[in-house]
Amino acid sequence: MRESEFLDLLRYYFRNAKPSEVKEILADYEAHFEEGKKEGLTEEEISKELGSPKDIYDSYQSEGVVDEKTKTSTLMDGAEKAANAAGKAADAAQKKLGETWDEVSPKLPQAVESTALLTARLLYGAGIVLAVFIAAATILILGLLQVRFAPFQGIPPLPGLHPLTLFSIGGAGIFSALAVLFTGIEGSKALQSTVKKDDHKEEGGEGK
Question: Which residues cross the membrane (predicted)?
């Protein structure tokens, strides 16, 4: 076996040992080869005298000279590195989330205020439209009820409703329209007053 092959096998068998120990062992056997060459021996003869790299490895292990890295320690190192990387990633994500919140949070009150004002306007408008619709429907119904018509030819027209009944129907319709209009207006005012109170609180907090 040539010197390069011998040393390569040593590197293979001691691959899990500490690099400093591997370097020391290889230097020791390179010195053996140098001494043998000075004595006129060939690389094959020197390799034969030294023994097989596997036997050399076994002898080092049996004597406890080599502090070999176990697979468990390798896995532990890998797990530790993975945990550290995960921790750094979590810290970075938390920092990014905090920065995003700092950017968005000042805009939230303005967005809530805009939404509340829009809702107030819609509620006010819906109240007016619905009230007008109810009033118009009431007037139309009263007009139809006052029309006298014959259900069949040759039969006298049906008698009209009593004025008190018509007045009750009209009053109920007008009352409903006013109730809807009042609800829309008051709901709109309530939303707007809530927004104004929040603005006053913020201004008071900034003044302090």
Answer: 122-145, 165-185
